[in-house]
Structure formats: structure tokens, C-alpha cells
Design a protein that fits this description.
heterodimer, A: alpha+beta, B: alpha+beta
Chain lengths: ~100, ~150
């Protein structure tokens, strides 16, 4: 790897830079994977879809739906949305508030 | 506007008092409580779980949408999480406005959007000892709940 680090707050990604993001799991998804959060390793540029694919490949991931809702930094995200170092990702099961 | 995910009992009267103002001619209070049966199956208790930080962010967005659409109105909302017994209040929403029509509409908007968008989950405990995560009919979305416009 030619780059040891990226300045914090940098807007531009460094191609191929490796980082990990926490992925929060809730309700049935947490039960299926046996964890309330997992760390997923990525290489920039990465997307929410990349995170989802990695989670689905974990043991138990085959019991999740193929296209669950994904949130990045507390907002619902599209699978093409970027995921950067420092982001918090979550898989959102069908909600049941009220 | 104030919204909060709480881990204590909800005092609905306190929410009404919170919005009291002589400019408001109407305050509509919605209270959701834990029901003893779902889909014909007896329920003995419930656990509510939230992604609290996102739930408060999404609920804030919904309340601001309501206040923008029904100006000048005020929304306050609390949703409880944790273990709840039958009859406990799970959610309370007050919409206050100079006129009753707007207050009813704004209150209805907030509860309907909450049930579709806010990341809160419910696990029912049944009389036979089984437990199961349940889904709101409107919450079973598989795409972005606010569409692709954002």
C-alpha cells in the first residue's frame, strides 16, 4: 500500500485504501447472525451495497433477505451510496414501531 | 418540536401541557397502547427495541415535515422502548395548531409515517411462551421509504 494514512476529514478517497466500518444489526437480523454488530473490511471506493454483500456472506447471512434496508450515518441509504472511513452502517429490518 | 425515544413510562398529559399555548385552538393527542392480541394470537407482553440515534433523527424529520405542512403547528412525540406490559403506553403524539382540522391531520401524519419509517422493532411474547419479532404492515418496505428523491 503506497499510502499509510489519509488526513481526517479528507473528502477524496485514496483508491484501494483499506478500512473497516461497524455494521449494526437489530431484531431478527441480529438473531440470525448471532451479533448486534459486526466489523466489515472494505477497500475504497466502497458503497452500501459492498457492505451488504459482505454481511450476507457471513455465517447466518444466508437467512437474511437479499435486499434489506441499509442506513449510513443514521439515514436510509441507496445501495450505490458511498461508505467512507468513520461511517456507521446499519441493516434495518422491517420496522414495527407505534 | 420535540421527539424522544424513552426507557420510562410516558406521561401523555405532560405532553399536552408541554404544547399549551393561547395561540393553539386545538391539541390532538394520540396514545398507542400494548394490545392483548395480534392476528388472533394472545399476547402477554412486548419488548420494543430501537436504533435510538437513528429513530430520533427520523422522528425529528417526520415532525419537521408535519410542522412545515401544517404551519403554524407544534409536534411533540415520545416512543417508549424496553419491556412493556399489556395496556402500557408505547407511543404518544401531540399535534397542536390554531385549528382542529390541521391538528388532526398532522397527528395522523406523524403516527402513520412513524410506523413506516422509524427504526423501532417489537417482539411479542405469547401465552404459549414463544416470542417473535413482528412487522408493521406498512413497515415491510424493501426500498427507500422516502423514495429516490433524496
Amino acid at each position: 500500500m503506497p499510502y499509510a494514512s489519509v488526513p481526517s476529514g479528507a473528502e477524496a478517497f485514496v483508491f484501494g485504501m483499506r478500512f473497516t466500518v461497524p455494521v449494526l444489526l437489530f431484531a431478527r437480523y441480529a438473531d440470525e447472525l448471532g451479533a448486534e454488530s459486526v466489523n466489515i473490511a472494505l477497500a475504497s471506493p466502497a458503497t452500501a451495497g459492498d457492505v451488504l454483500s459482505a454481511v450476507l456472506a457471513l455465517p447466518g447471512g444466508e437467512r437474511l433477505p437479499r435486499a434489506p434496508m441499509v442506513a449510513v450515518n443514521l439515514r436510509y441509504a441507496a445501495l450505490g451510496d458511498a461508505v467512507n472511513p468513520g461511517d456507521e452502517v446499519a441493516l434495518i429490518p422491517p420496522v414495527a414501531g407505534g | 418540536m420535540r421527539v424522544e425515544i424513552v426507557e420510562r413510562a410516558i406521561d401523555a398529559t405532560a405532553l399536552l401541557n408541554e404544547v399549551a399555548a393561547i395561540t393553539n385552538g386545538a391539541s390532538v393527542l394520540f396514545v398507542g397502547t400494548v394490545r392483548d392480541v395480534n392476528g388472533g394470537r394472545p399476547v402477554t407482553a412486548l419488548d420494543y427495541r430501537a436504533y435510538s440515534s437513528m429513530a430520533e433523527a427520523e422522528l425529528s424529520a417526520i415532525a419537521l415535515e408535519a410542522e412545515a405542512r401544517w404551519t403554524p403547528g407544534t409536534i411533540v412525540c415520545e416512543h417508549r422502548v424496553g419491556s412493556l406490559a399489556l395496556g402500557d403506553v408505547s407511543v404518544a403524539i401531540v399535534a397542536a395548531h390554531p385549528h382542529r382540522g390541521a391538528a388532526f391531520d398532522a397527528c395522523r401524519y406523524v403516527i402513520e409515517e412513524l410506523k413506516k419509517r422509524v427504526p423501532i422493532w417489537k417482539r411479542e411474547h405469547y401465552a404459549d411462551g414463544e416470542r417473535s419479532w413482528v412487522e408493521n404492515a406498512a413497515g415491510a418496505q424493501r426500498t427507500h421509504p422516502r423514495g429516490a428523491e433524496r
